[in-house]
Amino acid sequence: MLKLYQFKRTWGIPNLSPFCCKIETYLRMAEIEYEIRTTLPLGAPKGKLPYIEDNSQALGDSRFIVTYLKSAYKDLDKGLNDAELAISIALQRLLEEHLFWAALYSRWQYTDENWQVNKQAIFGGLPPIIRNIVASGWRRKIKLQILGHGTGRHQAEEIFALGKQDIEALSASLGNKPYFLGDRPTTLDASAFGLLINITGCPIESPLKEYGLTKNNLVNYVDRIGRAFYPDL
Ligand SMILES: N[C@@H](CCC(=O)N[C@@H](CS)C(=O)NCC(=O)O)C(=O)O
User: Fold this and answer.
1) Which of 25, 65, 217, 218 is 20 to 30 A from 224 in CA distance terms?
2) For residue 13, what are the β-bridge partners?
3) Tell me, what's the pLDDT at 65?
4) pLDDT tens column, 163-199
5) Is the CB of 17 under 6 A from ligand 1?
6) DSSP state of 67
7) 41 CB under 6 A from ligand 1?
């Protein structure tokens, strides 16, 4: 059976990683059987989670994993026209390559309170003797990623102002529809649910979360997908 390697469940949400949550949500939306293997990114093929193992092959990066799942199992985007597929890709990039960085900043850099919550969730299972050393080293690495991406060069207010624009755009695009592209879930919904629940539904406090919680359609969307696809949580 297909194995999904991801961080351990915490905070009452499917996963603290938007990308792990995206893949598990895709698997559930597409009714593909899988087993979870809880891990840290150290042994991952690309040094990041999630990755999957299927037919003795390991595959990293949620975008390549989705491409594989579409061809080997089920394509949730079948039937979308070219314009819808273009919107799907554009909004996934907004979520995963832009809004994600503001969310990452809020966890690893914004306040010490958030860092402590994040640290406990990710590294709490490590032996006490190495926990702080590993967590501090990892934090330095992530801060450098945020700086390298460019997000880390802005003030906190600027980072959250950019993130709020994304949330505004997502809310407007969803409107009153059950899913972003109509009345059935597609890859875009797996991606959007993965990040939105990690902004509005976890104990990381920031202006991004506050703003997300003012968008009723997004809050209801996250709640609806959670209830439909994670009745066990
Ligand atoms: N483009 C990748 C991003 C995956 C990613 O950034 N994973 C994070 C967790 S949210 C990670 O494992 N980071 C570890 C690191 O950068 O050291 C995907 O779509 O899967």
Assistant:
1) 65
2) 10
3) 98
4) 999 999 999 999 999 999 999 999 999 999 999 999 9
5) yes
6) H
7) yes
Asked if residues 135 and 182 have their Cβ atoms less than 8 Å apart, the reply is no
CA distances from 116 to 25, 67, 208 (A): 27, 36, 18
Task: Please tell me the residue having the least CA distance from ligand 1 atom 2.
Answer: 61
Task: Count other Cβ atoms within 10 Å, centred on residue 172.
Answer: 10
Q: What is the 3-state secondary structure (H, E, C) of 84-137?
A: HHHHHHHHHHHHHHHHHHHHHHHHHHHCHHHHHHHHHHHHCCCCHHHHHHHHHH
Helix 156-174 to helix 82-94 angle (10° resolution) is 160
Domains of the chain: 2-72 (3.40.30.10), 82-229 (1.20.1050.10)
Residue 46 CA, ligand 1 centroid: distance in Å? 9
Q: What pLDDT does residue 39 have?
A: 96
On whether the CB atoms of residues 174 and 222 are closer than 8 A, the answer is no
> Best mutation site among 19, 24, 39, 123 for ligand 1, i.e. most ligand atoms within 8 A of its Cβ?
19
The model's pTM is 0.97
Atom number in ligand 1 closest to CA 142: 16
What's the CA-to-centroid distance between 226 and ligand 1, angstroms?
22
Please give the distance, rounded to the nearest whole angstrom, from the Cα atom of residue 176 to the centre of ligand 1: 31
